[in-house]
Predict the structure.
Amino acid sequence: MRKQLIILITVLLAVFLAIGCTSTDTEDQPTTEENITGAEEEITGAEEEITGAEEDIEENITDVEDEMMENDSMDEEDMMEEENDTMDEEEMMDNETMGEGETIVTITGDGFEPFDTQITVGDTITWMNDDSMAHTVVDDEGVFNSGDIEPGESYSYTFDEAGTYTYTSVEDETFEAMITVVTSDDENMSESTSGDVVVVPVD
């Protein structure tokens, strides 16, 4: 009987020891749920990093686009300034070319511009040929004859006598215009006229 009791106690102790070891191993090893949670957290962290990287890329793209738009705007402003400068230079060159007492008449495909010109004795008329063909400017009385004025070229004539000069283009007689040459006294009289009152200079 005593022997059987000792055997029973030994078996029970062995069982208890086995149960204790199993419990300890179970506590030391992480559960499947914990592994899944850890993996999900890692995935979430990776997604947040990817989202942050995408936002950085979008910000960089936006900055680059804004910079490109600013550069394009600056290029357009520079081009406009260059065009304005070019126009100003051309106007200055035209003004330098057309000196005091000189009037420009342009020859175009439609005729002479201006059609009617008034100048003072001693002034000069310069015909500029802006047409695509040559023109020969002659007056009806044969006072002046330009010869061929090629496209882009010019011809000048100084009028020393007062009077009215009608002229045409030999190449196209429909091109007809008129120049009125007045003396300095006539010009002063014209400038002093106001309304219906005419102021006549006293000799």
About this structure: Residues 91-98, 191-203 have pLDDT under 50 and may be disordered.
